[in-house]
């Protein structure tokens, strides 16, 4: 497989994502209407990266930048020539908060590579998901970032796969973002290697129920988001997050840890008083909506 650069500039936008959604550990994900935009130009000179917004001044600004690495991975997979890259990243997805910022960067770079190659690009969605999973380690965030909406992802003997699942039009998520960050590897490090069979079995049942609930059974969202597999184990590294999840659930809100945390995702809206109280406690409260479309090249 070989290709060539057809365009010298593309602009891509990619949504934030929330993985797991409670019981769907490393498999379920939801795209949210918080968008990063990346302008990519192929140039004759060295690679430069300008980051505006989230992550400015804290992420790499050269060949080690994650978007650059993803563009290069995409071009290499297509057999296309490499070039210098001039990137401008307008970031709105919070970093280190469990909203898929790294998956968004990877998917943005891969979609940009496909855009540079033009309509004859050999990089279809399946190829991009495989490359994103290789760079990310698992497809739970990459799938909704690429496809939009809610997705279920899995890895078979032939690589990663993902399918969209229905999401009701009246589902309006709320995100509660704390000031502190948490590295994904730290959040995963506290998870046990073995869990009780009963916990795995009942979590599996709730994950299946969640697919039904997302499609239009809001009355099932609270029981469907119950998890015994990973969230409670993470209380050691994000006690405020788990305390808030539990408090909201006691009040009937389907609250979960967003991805590896520490953001809290509620699959529904909160009343004004609760929103005001949480904002006063330092939580950034947002209602981003479900991103029904995934990453895309914007019109020139």
Radius of gyration: 19 Å
Tally of contiguous helical segments: 9
Structural class: alpha+beta
CATH topology of the largest domain: Ribosomal Protein S5, domain 2
Mean pLDDT across the residues is 95
The end-to-end distance, rounded to whole angstroms, is 27 Å
General form: globular
CATH architecture assignment of the largest domain: 2-Layer Sandwich
How many DSSP-defined strands?
11
Estimate the strand proportion. 15-25%
Elements, N to C (H/E): EEEHEHHHEEEHHHHEEHEE
Please outline the major beta sheet: 7 strands, mixed
Per CATH, the class of the largest domain reads Alpha Beta
Describe the overall structure:
This protein is α+β, with helices and mostly antiparallel strands and 300 residues long. It folds into 2 domains: 9-165 and 291-297, 2-Layer Sandwich (Ribosomal Protein S5, domain 2), CATH 3.30.230.10; 174-286, Alpha-Beta Plaits. Helix content is 32%, strand content 23%. The chain contains 9 helices and 11 strands. It has helices at 66-78, 101-117, 125-136, 142-147, 184-189, 197-214, 221-224, 239-250, 272-280, and strands at 9-19, 28-43, 48-53, 84-91, 150-156, 159-165, 174-177, 255-257, 264-266, 284-286, 296-297. The strands form 2 sheets. Strands 1, 2, 3, 4, 5, 6 and 11 form a 7-stranded mixed β-sheet that branches. Strands 8-9-7-10 form a 4-stranded antiparallel β-sheet, with helices on one face. Helix 2 crosses helix 3. The chain starts with 8 loop residues before the first strand and ends with a strand. The relative contact order is 0.19. The model has no long low-confidence stretch (mean pLDDT 95).
